[in-house]
Amino acid sequence: MKNMRVSSVIVATILMVGCGSDGQDSEVTTIETVPANGEVINIQSLDNSFRPVDFEIAAGTEVMFDNRGRNDHNILPDTIKDDAGLTALLASDTSPTAWGVASTDFVPGDTYSHLFNVPGTYNYYCSIHGAPGAGMYGTLTVS
Ligand SMILES: [Cu+2]
After folding, report:
1. Which is nearest to 38 in space by CA: 66, 67, 58?
2. For a FRET experiment, which of 18, 39, 44, 137 has its CA 20 to 30 Å from that of 74?
3. pLDDT value of residue 30
4. Which CATH superfamily groups domain 40-142?
């Protein structure tokens, strides 16, 4: 008898919590992604340029960067200043639009690939041999 009573108190508490919801969900930012399309394109990182510099791809394409040079390079979105900035970005932002590789992970012979599944323009550069839009830089147009 005593146990029954405890149970009904718990049920009542759960119902009250349920009714307490005002039905307003907190806003969640969602990024629309496209499924992988199975295509892989290659961009070479040479000393000291990306080839090709400009590439237009369909959303869902995987881009493989290949360090064919004799030097370390990095691949940074234009908004990022250096390897440390990229490391901080990738640690805090797990969305598919956060991308790039630090020079420690892109030494000669290394590859880095990323699935570009959100349409947009992705400007990038190597901070060791370039600056945004100058020297060792490139643009990916994803549509
Ligand atoms: Cu470089």
Report:
1. 58
2. 39
3. 78
4. Cupredoxins -  blue copper proteins (2.60.40.420)
